[in-house]
Amino acid sequence: MEEHLCFIKVYLDLFKGDSAETLKVRYQKMFKTPKRITERYPVSKEGDFARKYMIYLSWLLSEEMLDVETDLKLRILNHLLLRTPASSLRKILLESGFGDDIIGNGIGNEFPQPIFSVGMNGLSKDDVRKVEELIVNTFKSLVEEGFALDAVEASMNTIEFSLREHNSGSFPRGLSLMLCSIVCGLFCSDFLKRKNKICSFTIHV
After folding, report:
1. What kind and span of H or E run contains 73?
2. In this structure, are residues 167 and 88 in contact, taking their beta carbons and an 8 Å threshold?
3. Are 57 and 119 in contact (CB under 8 A)?
4. Are 123 and 54 in contact (CB under 8 A)?
5. Which part of the chain is the Peptidase M16 C-terminal domain (predicted)?
6. Cα distance between residue 52 and residue 49, in whole Å
7. Quick check: pTM over 0.70?
8. Taking every pair of C-alpha atoms in the chain, what is the biggest distance, in angstroms?
9. How does 77-98 read in b/e, with b if 16+ C-beta sit within 10 Å?
10. What torsion do the CA atoms of 115, 32, 81, 121 make, to the nearest 10 degrees?
11. What's 86-142 look like in SS3?
């Protein structure tokens, strides 16, 4: 152990400590109307140039950091929308015939303010707006109709297992646990206190 720590120290000594005050960031205010940005990107000479368009929709979900209960609810919702072959939004997009594949992982919680991003690549120019409308209309339909109870239970079980075991990905368990806590560790005054909120959420469910 001492040998390993000495090895790490050689590299850590190259950096200087800094005050946590530097981690304070300005929160992004929500836009009153959607912003549309069009950009060009390099593509391979191979393939059909007419189907090289893509669309990527993003929403800012909150003007401040979410409490742990809302964060867990969003993880479950994200799983219902995109994480399985039968997920509502994923299935509708892949079966639409518009593009090649889905881009975006849905909920992004690596920052203090969560975002939701999703889109498709391999589109024709005419299909870009159609995919945008399909995504928005799918959300509207899900708001009105909701999700099947068995799908909700399955997603909850999956998220619970992932949080408990931290061995469902490609990272070692320790690294996985660190990555899950780093956002709150960076931007919360006392992120360990949030642990009690998980118990509250479990009882509520």
Report:
1. helix 68-82
2. no
3. yes
4. yes
5. 8-157
6. 5
7. yes
8. 62
9. bbbbbbbeeebbbbebbbeeeb
10. -80
11. CCHHHHHHHCCCCCCEEEEEEEECCCCCCEEEEEEEEECHHHHHHHHHHHHHHHHHH
Secondary structure of the chain: what % helix, strand, coil (to 5)? 50, 10, 35
Structural domains of the chain ordered from first start: 46-204 (3.30.830.10)
In the block, which residue shows the tokens 């929500």? 30
**Which tens digits make up the pLDDT trace of 3-61?**
888 898 898 888 877 665 556 677 888 999 999 999 999 988 887 888 999 999 999 99
Measure the CA–CA gap between 84 and 33, rounded to whole angstroms.
32
**Secondary structure class of 24 (helix, strand, coil):** coil
* Region for residue 123 given its phi and psi (left: phi exceeds 0; alpha: psi -120 to 50; beta: otherwise): beta
* pLDDT above 80 for 184: no
Q: What DSSP string describes 175-201?
A: HHHHHHHHHHHHH-S-GGGGHHHHHHH
For residue 102, the cross-strand partners are: 120
Q: How far is the C-alpha of 88 from the C-alpha of 71, rounded, in Å?
A: 20
Place of tokens 């990905």: 169
The closest of 166, 168, 190, 164 to 176, measured between CA atoms, is: 166
Measured in residues, the chain has a length of 205
**Distances, alpha carbon 168 to alpha carbons 93, 106, 160, 162, 203, in Å:** 26, 18, 12, 6, 25
Enter the tokens of residue 117: 């991003």
